[in-house]
Amino acid sequence: MTSRWLLLIPLLMLLSACGALTRSGGYYEDDGPAASPPADVANIPDAVPKAEPRSTSGNKPYSVYGTTYTPLSETSGYRERGIASWYGKKFHGRRTSSGEAYDMYAMTAAHKTLPLPSYVHVRNLQNNRAVVVRVNDRGPFLHNRLIDLSYAAAARLGILGTGTGVVEVGAVSPDEPSTQVVKTYPLQIIPPAAAAEEISDSPAPAAGPRLYLQVGAFSQWDNAISLRNRLEREALRPVFVQSSQVGVNNGADVARLYRVRVGPLASVEEGDRLTERAAQLGIPDARIVVE
């Protein structure tokens, strides 16, 4: 579910996975499936992780739409949840950020910061389908998307029709097939009427994946409450503060973090709409998060 532009960056041409205008069928502008896709596209096998040298292009810091991205030097321990989109015929055969030609029928993907090439396991949290893809492109850069999948990968995950899916992405490699489990701490939701002294570390009730719009994260309680109250006045709700402990100093210590979030969201489309509303209120970096 993307449209992409060739973006000129010093010494690097990036083919970016991003979009602006939605069409029926879950994709953007004039992108989409080919007129006669292979009948067995849903049976295309996973990418097989293997040791590869980093590509000569696509692995240096770059800027898109005023934001600078610094690619990771390694993938060990990478795991993240977010929104996946896909891109198809409009870019089939075009050059990717790694310099390779994009093949919509290969098990590949675009990511903003993972090394090129690298391999990730992508699981659809809504139907539990999973694939392994090879990351060889940069993007997506619009609409809070985490990863942009090839047509074949999207078909395997069952997101062609909707254009997006709620996914978990984890790094895989030949020498580290099992990714590191990131240490987490109990979360607690603080409703609008709560006071600072009411914070506790009681675990949240177990539930399926939910979408929220995160509009800010602060180390100071007062700053989080100030933003929450402003958004309440602007009718951007339901808005709450989520308190959690996070690891600092390479995990040696923990600190309290106060995240201001709106939701839960009914859909990815609602998240996109609220992101635009937040930008109008002076919050340009609001993003959809998945828990």
Automatic annotation (TrEMBL):
It holds the Pfam family DPBB_1. It is an enzyme of class 4 (lyase). Residues 205-291 form the SPOR domain. The keyword Cell wall biogenesis/degradation applies. InterPro entries: RlpA, RlpA-like_DPBB, RlpA-like_sf, RplA, SPOR-like_dom, SPOR-like_sf. CDD domains: DPBB_RlpA-like. It is found in: Cell membrane. Its main location: membrane. Residues 32-63 are annotated as: Disordered. It is a lipid-anchor. Keywords: Cell membrane, Cell wall biogenesis/degradation, Lipoprotein, Lyase, Membrane, Palmitate, Signal. PROSITE patterns: PROKAR_LIPOPROTEIN (PS51257), SPOR (PS51724). The keyword Lipoprotein applies. Belongs to the RlpA family. This is Endolytic peptidoglycan transglycosylase RlpA.
